[in-house]
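Q: Got a minute? One more chain.
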Amino acid sequence: MTITLTENAARQIQQQIVKRGNGIALRIGIKKSGCSGFSYTYDFADEIKNDDQLYTSHDTKVVIDTSDLPFLNGSQIDFVQEGLSSYFKLNNPNIDSTCGCGESFNLKESAKV
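A: Always. Here it is, folded:
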């Protein structure tokens, strides 16, 4: 299982943890929602739980619950700025399709198994 960060994403995570005043990693997950079926969740982790997998890239940590790993395997996390919007973007090879607004996605059958 592999999860990587771009330098932009690593820099943004580090800045947000400093701004927040505590935390050790960005926590990424998946939940059922939206018109296509799934969406990402983002939070900051203050601890590593028993069911967590820790990834480090560019000296920055990302935590993912092991139940979400099959859906995120091979993903690259980026941080992009488009006009006045800025957000984390996952380049996830397990996505089959996205909804028109881009907020939710459907997974390939191989990732669901």
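A: The domain at 3-112 is CATH 2.60.300.12 (Hypothetical Protein Aq_1857; Chain: A;).
Q: Perfect, thanks.
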